[in-house]
């Protein structure tokens, strides 16, 4: 069950997807900060505090949910001062911090500030969030912009860099190769798929932010295609995520070429999903 991801030794291949598991809340409510994950990935941290999108932010749909959260967060300074120490105190697995921004300087600043933090095992550059107006996904759709961000971050930290890419770009293989060339140690494939819901009776979007991202079982085939495509394009490690609910879902992504899988939307319905998937994989391998 042990795997090596971006130089990190993990007890098994099941992680959480960024933004789907609040370790502090899980510890307070369930007495288990990581819910059985072999590494903990934080919500995306941006340079400055962000309020995120106005409500409504989440809509359940057939086959999953659409979210328009909009990357709310305390900003990197408050994260270092309060959230990171508190999280590190309750998390007993490698801590991977997700980093977001709207240009090269944003990513480089956050990475540089977190480089000195011994509690941070690795950094995941979020180049794929579809529910903010600019940055993130737009960067990850362009190989040149991707390479510029990864190279700037690589120059400012000695920590392993994972790069989270959108599964929907037509240039996915080129973007993946650009990230690898610039110094990424692993790629996370992928993220939510752009979508929204209609405000019935009123028209327009039913989400406060307008657009959003679809996640859950509905995007599982999209994730599999993306992992298969990237696996033949690069030689670095891949994390596959998209609709993982069972051990079979995880095995499909692993057999497609990922070395680890992320559980996201399923955690909202059943917080024990990562542990159940982990145990299911162990039983299947035995």
Structure report:
With 286 residues, this protein is α/β, with parallel strands linked by helices. The protein has one domain (3-285): Alpha-Beta Barrel (TIM Barrel). Helix content is 36%, strand content 19%. The chain has ten helices and 14 strands. The strands form three sheets. The chain has an eight-stranded parallel sheet. Helix 8 packs across helix 10. The protein is globular, with a radius of gyration of 17 Å. The model has no long low-confidence stretch (mean pLDDT 95).
Structure keywords:
four-stranded antiparallel β-sheet, alpha/beta, 10 helices, TIM Barrel, eight-stranded parallel β-sheet, 36% helix, 286 residues
Q: Which percent bin holds the helix content?
A: 25-40%
- Report mean pLDDT, rounded to a whole number: 95
- The CATH class assignment is Alpha Beta
Order of strands, widest sheet: 3-14-13-10-9-8-7-4
Nearest-angstrom radius of gyration? Answer: 17 Å
Helix and strand content put the structural class at alpha/beta
For the secondary structure, the number of strands is 14
Oligomeric category: single chain
User: How can the largest sheet be summarized?
Assistant: 8 strands, parallel
What is the terminal separation in angstroms?
A: 10 Å
CATH superfamily: Aldolase class I
Order of helices and strands: EEEHEEEHEHEHHEHEEEHEHEHH
Which stretches are low in confidence, meaning pLDDT under 50 for 5 or more residues running?
Answer: none
CATH architectural group: Alpha-Beta Barrel
């Amino acid at each position: 069950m042990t795997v090596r991801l971006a130089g990190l030794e993990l007890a098994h291949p099941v992680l959480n997807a960024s933004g789907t598991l609040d370790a502090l809340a899980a510890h307070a409510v369930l007495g288990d900060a990581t819910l059985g994950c072999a590494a903990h990935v934080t919500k995306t941290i941006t340079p400055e505090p962000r309020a995120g999108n106005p409500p409504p932010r989440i809509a359940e749909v057939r086959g999953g949910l659409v979210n328009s959260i909009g990357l709310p967060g305390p900003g990197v300074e408050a994260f270092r001062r309060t959230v990171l120490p508190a999280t590190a105190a309750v998390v007993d697995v490698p801590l991977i911090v997700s980093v977001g921004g709207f240009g090269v300087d944003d990513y480089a600043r956050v990475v540089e500030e977190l480089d000195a933090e011994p509690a941070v095992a690795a950094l995941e550059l979020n180049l794929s969030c579809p529910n903010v107006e600019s940055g993130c996904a737009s960067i990850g759709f362009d190989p040149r912009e991707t390479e510029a961000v990864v190279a700037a971050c690589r120059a400012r930290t000695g920590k392993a860099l994972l790069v989270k890419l959108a599964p929907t770009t037509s240039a996915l293989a080129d973007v993946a190769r650009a990230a690898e060339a610039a110094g990424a140690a692993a790629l996370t494939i992928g993220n939510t798929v752009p979508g929204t819901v209609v405000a019935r009776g009123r028209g327009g979007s039913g989400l406060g932010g307008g657009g959003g991202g679809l996640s859950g079982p509905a995007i599982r085939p999209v994730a599999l295609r993306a992992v298969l495509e990237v696996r033949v394009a690069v030689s670095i490690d891949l994390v596959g995520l998209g609709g993982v609910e069972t051990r079979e879902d995880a095995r499909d992504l692993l057999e497609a070429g990922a070395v680890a899988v992320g559980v996201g939307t399923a955690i909202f319905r059943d917080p024990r999903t990562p542990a159940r998937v982990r145990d299911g994989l162990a039983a299947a391998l035995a």
